[in-house]
Amino acid sequence: MRIAVIGCGGIGGVVAGILGSQESDVLCVDINKDTVKRINDRGIRLYGKKGNINTSVRAVSSIGDEEGEFDVIVITVKSMVLRDVFELNKDHLSNDGLILTLQNGIEILDIVKDFPDVKTVAGAVGYNSQIDEKGEYIVTAQGGITIGNLTTGSDEDLLRLKNIFDPGILIDINRNITGVLWSKLLIVCGVTGLGGCSGLRLGELLGHREARQLFYRVVTEGASVSKKLGIQLEKFGRAINPEKFGDHKGGYPIFARYLLLKLIGITRQNIKAGIILDIERGNRTEVDFINGAVVKAGMALGIDTTVNREIVRVVKEIEQGNRRMTKGNLLEIMELNKR
């Protein structure tokens, strides 16, 4: 079985490293020539919550550089380029091949509408990983991947993926993958969106009362949108259904929400939000595809998404160099939300 992993950032690098260590035939594809050279020269090294792994895999800049077809193509690129990458790589699938997408957003739900005949499985990643200064991958939070079919795939296809990934990465199968993707989106909206505004690592972020209150509003807005769309949010992996953090019927009491967020902050205190890392590296962030996705859907449905909208505005101003990442941004958003 031939597997191509497109995008070797924090998520893709770990996938490629673990699959390679389990003797799968893995090809890494990344447009960054330095990343390609590093992988070809010394393989993939990862450490942390999934143990220490050092495996040799090949890397190229384009899947077109390789002959033949692939049984599985795993796409882990940023949401803003997902459509282009999907279209470019789908023609390299074998007759019974499938694409597995692993992103923070829900962009894939629109993409598959245009390609209903391409076997597409979506996944929500439960672990957290980043690339250190040596180009090695550190897994800072344990977890597996929850997957489900979006198009013409079968239960057998999902079991095939499960057998490929286990035991290195635990796979859960969920028939309501749309609900899973929306749940992951709302968690990321709160953690990554607010982290990007403030520049705070997760532990410090969730230690602030204002950040916790804004987190409740972020997921309340998102849950209202998903409910209007007829989407049932799903608990996945070891995560809590984000709907439980909302200011609505069915949400946990405030003291329970407080304790849970504090616990998450303690256990994952040093994690940096992806938006922070992008800003520090001078890259475009995914905010339009994270908080912006909630805002876009809310506007179409006539649902207020003030906090998510303000997070998008603040992050874009930071991207453009017109604002600094500081916890004072959280206070500003709080004040605007009160008006």
Short description:
With 339 residues, this protein is of the alpha/beta class.
Description:
By secondary structure, the chain is an alpha/beta fold. The protein has 13 helices and twelve strands. Strand 7, helix 4 and strand 8 form a beta-alpha-beta unit. The longest helix has 22 residues. The mean pLDDT is 93. Helix 6 packs across helix 12, helix 11 crosses helix 12 and helix 12 runs antiparallel to helix 13. An eight-stranded mixed beta sheet has the order 5-2-1-6-7-8-11-12, with helices on both faces. The protein has a four-stranded mixed beta sheet with strand order 4-3-10-9. It folds into two domains: 174 residues, NAD(P)-binding Rossmann-like Domain (Rossmann fold, 3-Layer(aba) Sandwich); 160 residues, Orthogonal Bundle (N-(1-d-carboxylethyl)-l-norvaline Dehydrogenase, domain 2), CATH 1.10.1040.10. InterPro entries: 6-PGluconate_DH-like_C_sf, 6PGD_dom2, ApbA, Ketopantoate_reductase, KPA_reductase, KPR_N, NAD(P)-bd_dom_sf.
| Global morphology | globular
Question: Regions with pLDDT < 50 over 5+ consecutive residues?
Answer: none
- Residue fraction in strands: 15-25%
The order of strands across the largest sheet is 5-2-1-6-7-8-11-12
The number of helical segments is 13
Counting helices, strands and paired strands, the structural category is alpha/beta
Oligomer: single chain
H and E string:
EHEHEEEEHEHEEEEHEHHHHHHHH
Number of domains: 2
Q: CATH superfamily assignment of the largest domain?
A: NAD(P)-binding Rossmann-like Domain
Terminal Cα span: 57 Å
- CATH 2nd-level architecture of the largest domain: 3-Layer(aba) Sandwich
Would you count the extended β strands for me?
Answer: 12
Return the CATH topology of the largest domain: Rossmann fold
Keywords: NADP, Oxidoreductase
Organism: marine sediment metagenome
EC number: 1.1.1.169
Protein name: 2-dehydropantoate 2-reductase
